[in-house]
Amino acid sequence: MAALTVTHLVKRFTGGVIGVDDVSLTVHEGAFTALVGPSGCGKTTMLRMVAGLEEPTSGAVRIGARDVTWLPPRDRDVAMVFQNYALYPHLTVRENIAFPLTVRRTAAVEVTRRVRQAAELLDIDGLLDRKPAQLSGGQRQRAALARAIVREPALFLFDEPLSNLDAQVRAQTRAELVALHKRLGATILYVTHDQVEAMTMAQRVAVMALGRVLQEAPPMALYRDPASLGVARFIGSPSINTVAGRATGTRFEGALSCDTRVAPCADAVLAVRPEHLVLEPAMDAAAAVVTLVEPLGPESLVRVRLQGGEDLVARVAGEAAWRMGDAVGVRVVPGQGLCFRAADGARLA
Ligand code: ATP
User: Fold this and answer.
1) Residue 210 CB coordination number (10 Å)
2) How many domains does the chain have?
3) Fewest CB within 10 A of the end CB: N or C in the chain?
């Protein structure tokens, strides 16, 4: 295993479209980093440049001590796992898994050993004689993973590998991948548009937008302490609530108000996580009307509309005491309001 270091990487496509705009990022040896962001933000382009499938316009890619920026994919020692599995339909699972080794003319005994080991690790050793068409989606994805593992690469690259799986298999495969990462001590760069996937699996998450990395940090640091409104909005489900107003230095004043000691700003945005809104009988807090109650079992989401028309969502434990049409007061849990400058979304210090 090796570290991945990307420095000032730029990809400008013919026609002038900028896919990746000056990204620097390090994935330490043995670490699992997820690259997330909305569609078109440059995740796949980044991954393809690391894999050697796309030439950068400028910048450098290092794997361990080697500068691989201009090396072809086969000389980079990376294994890639895609959304569509890319298994050969005419080969058995065994032959598919063995493929990267047979093309490298690995000795037959060694091929057999590594295929068995990978298949056992992924619990598909009973399926080795089937063709891909005779497997479920989850089993196909595990065969593709086994094929990546047998290579014992310096770096694993994943491009939305779970997108084709249904919700239950996906949740299970997520847990399996985390366990696999631990066992292999693998260095992983994992691309997904699903922030839940990134948050639950990766040790660090890089949030991209418009070709740039907005912030790179451990998942909970991004959640609790986002550096910009873009990150605050992308991380968390349901999305963080936002209202416009002004920061006075000691308070935020707007459709919602709360004490907060940040730099004064006449045109600011207050952002509050759903679990940091408190609903109470309508009295002196910002008055609102309940528009929808969504029971989820252990918690409920209560959607409310403030007098000024702003829609907010609050997360409450268990079953909500509120019903549609109820008048409620809305308060921010002390110390939990995040303030940003409206002009550029930067966090107010
Ligand atoms: P998605 O989640 O939808 O796959 P992404 O974050 O992976 O999106 P990329 O596929 O990396 O995004 O694309 C980044 C930007 O570069 C987009 O604006 C896209 O339209 C553009 N782009 C990608 N490939 C090319 C190409 N070959 N020629 C021109 N523009 C491209």
Assistant:
1) 14
2) 2
3) C
Q: How many CB atoms lie within 10 A of CB 160?
A: 19
**What's this model's pTM, rounded to 2 decimal places?**
0.90
CATH number of the domain where residue 165 is located: 3.40.50.300
Q: What residues line ligand 1, using a CB cutoff of 6 Å?
A: 13, 17, 19, 37, 39-45, 193
For residue range 185-233, what is the model confidence (pLDDT) as tens digits?
Answer: 899 999 999 999 999 999 999 999 999 999 999 999 999 999 999 999 9
Question: What is the number of the ligand 1 atom nearest to the C-alpha of 41?
Answer: 6
DSSP 3-state of 9: strand
If asked whether residues 52 and 168 sit together in one domain, one would say yes
Q: At what angle do helices 137-150 and 167-184 cross, to 10 degrees?
A: 20
Residues 284 and 195 in one domain: no
Q: How far is CA 211 from CA 19, 37, 61, 181, in A?
A: 5, 10, 16, 27
Considering the domain architecture, whether residues 327 and 209 belong to the same structural domain is answered as: no
Rounded Cα distance between 66 and 265, Å, is 47
Please report whether residue 146 resides in a domain. Answer: yes
Ligand 1 center from residue 13 Cα (angstroms): 9
